[in-house]
Design goal:
The complex is a heterodimer of chains A (376) and B (500). Chain A is of the alpha/beta class. Chain A contains 14 helices and twelve strands. By secondary structure, chain B is an alpha+beta fold.
């Protein structure tokens, strides 16, 4: 989120949702530990969450994903840049991030700045593969190396090693490195834990704060998925009549998410809800409960078209939609600044926060229309 | 008994005017009738025409897209051949080559794909497995036409061809492809269409791929959703099946009181349907515009014709009048010439006996009325005419007469000369000529006397002027005549030839 949007958001909060912000801030402070990140970013996070509070689904579709970006006033020092980006796994979520990067690249090109970059990932999330790619990239002629951390424990030391060897390293999109890592900056979701809390709160309210729930996490070790799952667990633990009956990892596979859900339903036919922590979970879970005619309430993440269709049809209760386009756009802008030798401060923050908007059934058609050009 | 119609100037003009008016009115009525008949007939034909018109447009646009696709496949094939011949050793080389090919062959977002589904484009190298479903075809053994809906509602038409055996930078490459933004295709079609009709590209599932607004009723919604409430169930199902099976068809429905016709046709090689819609009122309006223009032209024609006929009639009448006047003048001149000829002596050109008689009567009238108080007469007789005729021939005699006439005219220039007999002349003098008569006559006589010796023309003259006692010119004439005879005798004594 750029500064203009942040200021606009702040004004909006102050005038429209001041009370809700205070109440929710107190709730979050009381229920969860802060993750690494600056206070400013967190305030923005809470603001968007307040806007999309499940009790009053706001019409925030237009601001959920911002496709209208312009480069900021920063003037690059060079006219050619070459970057290397790697992320967890080949998946539509990162394709959305890629489109934001491509938009920024086109805008730089129009200004006479040629940016070339690699944006690659393995077929399946793997810290080992990511480490191999990063080390290989360090031998290449790249101005900046960016990474969406697959496993913060395994990758953070590698990033430190690269920085020590003189490489300019940043993290982006869904997962930052571990606290204390020497990476220069992070652009992406800084509130994965809070996203998990919000989705789970919505589910709990829908279920009347009682019932059995399952958690589908995503890739084991992926910070974003693990943080959301932790947020979900902490929230459930607050309510005595709620129980987590299963926690499974689909490794970002829809088919695996489906199979795991079928298995969970087999063992827990009276399952009341499923908390999905990534983009593939809700699709697989929705397929399964449709197939098995279960009444389990699904809350999940992101903007998969099939998931949005399930949301429109009422199979999925709510989705936390991240602004992937802005993540991609801002990532490339920050990469240019880092390549020019800039450090976090005036030009860019150590963590550039991007918003997550929780949307409900009434918003689904509009979101489908906006993201895919059709409500179908 | 047949009545003979007399053609007069009035009948001529009346016939011209009424004839012209009749022609103009008949022409006007005919034009009006024809225009209205055209509008009525065209209105009736609109519905029938709409379908044929739209089918033709849908087919044409479908072919345009098919041709666009074919052209791009050809270009991509050429690009591939070029790459095979290029020495590409690094990613930078590959990017530069792709950039050159995009520029040279006008390729849109051309890229190569390696065996790991990594996409190599001009500026980026990225994992494409999840972005391009068609890459999952394994093996890709023929050309692929695929619609890719990207996040952010962008829709791309991806054209791919397999590249078996292609190795670049030591890596095997499985395919190359390019992306055509459907919005660009739509813009191209819209440009060609010039905004006459609505159109949209749909997927077989009814999704509006082009995002174009198909009129106020269907807008940009799904074809099936949008048409469900405007068509009877059976018709809707039939079209649903047509659409899903890639067939062509058409529907007509009412929207806001206007009839709309939509035709759709499959686009070869794709899973798209091209739909074209036109509101009946658009055709009607266009035809009405044409009719009104024709009517306006007809009115202008009628007015122009009327003006032309009137102008022509006026010109003709003026010309007829001028011609009549001219003829009248010619007749007058002829009459005057005839009269002149009747009053002129053919030999000498002076007035003849008839002219003198007319003049005498006129003078007498004036004398009687007291308006003329000064008038004189010179009576002349040519001496020796018979002698000349007998001795020198009549031609010489005629010459003698004309010389005598000329001599009288020369000396008595203030009077009017008449030849009243073979060798007899009269000069009628009025006004100032009367006062100088004595002097002129003396000069004349001196000349005559000189001519006797020269054997030239000799004219005996006598003259007299009007006296109060004279009742008419004849009295004056007789005195002058007597004087002339006396002079003739005198001249004879001087040697002049005489009749005797």
């Amino acid at each position: 989120m750029n500064l203009g949007q942040q200021h606009k958001m702040v004004r909006s909060i102050r005038t429209k949702h001041l009370v809700a912000v205070v109440l929710l801030a107190l709730l979050i402070l009381a229920s969860s530990p802060f993750k690494a990140g600056d206070a400013h970013a967190l305030s923005q996070d809470m603001a968007r969450t307040a806007e999309a509070t499940p009790t009053e689904p706001a019409d925030t579709i237009q601001s959920a994903v911002d496709f209208d970006h312009d480069l900021d006033a920063y003037v690059p020092k060079k006219n050619r840049y070459n970057f290397y980006f790697t992320y967890k796994t080949v998946h539509a979520w990162w394709d959305a991030v890629a489109l934001g990067m491509e938009d920024a690249q086109r805008q730089y090109l129009e200004k006479g700045v040629t940016i070339t970059y690699e944006y690659v990932a393995p077929e399946a999330a793997s810290a080992k593969d990511q480490k191999r790619r990063l080390l290989a990239a360090a031998q290449g002629n790249y101005d900046v190396i960016g990474v969406d951390v697959a496993d913060e424990a395994a990758i953070s030391p590698v990033l430190d090693e690269l920085v020590d060897s003189g490489a300019k390293v940043m993290t982006f999109s869904s997962s930052d490195a571990a606290a204390g890592c020497k990476r220069i900056a992070y652009v992406g979701n800084t509130h994965n834990y809070e996203d998990g809390v919000q989705l789970t709160e919505a589910l709990c309210k829908k279920l009347g704060y009682k019932g059995k729930v399952a958690i589908l996490v995503g890739s084991a070790g992926a910070p974003c998925h693990e943080d959301r799952a932790q947020g979900a667990k902490d929230t459930i633990s607050k309510y005595g009549n709620m129980e987590i009956v299963a926690t499974e990892y689909d490794m970002d596979s829809i088919d695996l998410a489906h199979d795991l859900t079928v298995e969970i339903l087999k063992k827990n036919p009276d399952l009341d809800g499923i908390i999905c922590c990534n983009m593939s979970n809700p699709v697989g879970a929705a397929r399964a409960i449709t197939e098995k005619k279960s009444d389990a309430v699904i809350v999940g993440m992101d903007h998969d078209r099939e998931a949005l269709r399930y949301l429109k049809d009422g199979v999925i209760y709510c989705l936390g939609v991240q602004d992937c386009y802005s993540i991609g756009f801002d990532t490339l802008q920050v990469a240019v600044k880092i390549a020019d030798g800039n450090m976090p401060g005036e030009l860019f923050p150590a963590k550039t926060n991007e918003v997550t908007t929780v949307i409900f059934q009434p918003d689904a058609a509009k979101m489908l229309e906006m993201l895919y050009g059709s409500a179908l | 008994m047949r009545r003979k119609i007399e053609i007069t100037h009035t009948t001529f003009v009346g016939t011209a005017v009424f004839g012209s008016l009749f022609i103009v009115i008949a022409l006007s009525l005919f034009v009006l009738w024809t225009s209205r008949q055209t509008v009525v007939a065209t209105d009736q034909a609109v519905s029938a025409v709409s379908s044929f018109y739209l089918e033709a447009i849908a087919d044409r646009r479908s072919r345009e897209i098919t041709n666009l696709i074919d052209d791009n496949f050809v270009q991509m094939g050429e690009a591939l051949e070029f790459i095979k011949d290029e020495r590409i050793e690094s990613q930078d080389d590959l990017r530069e080559t792709i950039g050159r090919l995009e520029s040279l062959l006008s390729l849109n977002r051309f890229a190569l794909v390696d065996a790991d589904d990594t996409v190599y484009a001009r500026y980026t190298t990225y994992s494409g497995g999840s972005r391009y479903a068609f890459l999952s075809q394994d093996p890709m053994d023929s050309r692929v036409i695929s619609t890719v809906s990207e996040y952010g509602s962008s829709r791309q038409l991806c054209l791919a061809i397999p590249t078996p055996g292609l190795t670049v930078m030591g890596k095997p490459f499985k395919a190359c492809f390019l992306q055509l933004d459907i919005k660009d295709i739509v813009d191209l079609l819209a440009f060609n269409d010039k905004g006459r009709t609505y159109f949209a590209l749909y997927s077989r599932s009814g999704e509006n791929l082009s995002g174009t607004d198909l009129g106020p009723c269907l807008s940009s919604r799904s074809f099936f959703d949008a048409t469900r409430h405007v068509l009877p169930e059976a018709v809707w199902k039939e079209n649903y099946n047509n659409f899903a099976n890639g067939l062509e068809g058409s529907i007509t429905f009412e929207s806001d009181g206007a009839e709309e016709t939509l035709c759709y046709a499959p686009i070869e090689g794709t899973d798209w349907e091209m739909a074209v819609l036109i509101r009946g009122s658009v055709i009607e309006d266009q035809i009405r515009d044409i009719s009104e223009k024709n009517l306006l032209h007809s009115r202008i024609l009628v007015v122009f014709t009327l003006a032309s006929v009137v102008l022509l009639a006026v010109v003709l009448l003026l010309q007829a009048r001028v011609l009549a006047q001219k003829k009248l003048e010619e007749e007058k001149k002829a009459s005057e010439a005839f009269q002149l000829m009747a009053r002129t002596d053919s030999l000498t050109g002076v007035g003849n006996k008839h002219a003198y008689t007319e003049s005498e009567e006129a003078v007498n009238e004036r004398i009687r009325s007291g308006k003329l108080r000064e008038v004189g007469i010179v009576v002349g007789d040519v001496n020796g005419l018979k002698y000349v005729n007998d001795t020198q021939g009549h031609a010489a005699g005629d010459k003698l007469i004309t010389d005598a006439s000329s001599m009288l005219g020369e000396y008595f220039a203030q009077g009017t000369v008449f030849r009243i007999g073979g060798d007899e002349f009269v000069v009628l003098v009025e006004g100032e000529g009367v006062e100088a008569l004595d002097e002129v006559a003396s000069e004349f006589n001196r000349k005559v006397e000189a001519n006797i010796g020269d054997d030239d023309v000799v004219v005996s003259i006598g003259y007299a002027v009007l006296e109060p006692k004279d009742g008419e010119l004849r009295d004056v004439f007789e005195r002058a005549d007597r004087m002339m005879y006396a002079r003739k005798t005198e001249l004879k004594s001087r040697g002049a030839h005489t009749r005797e």
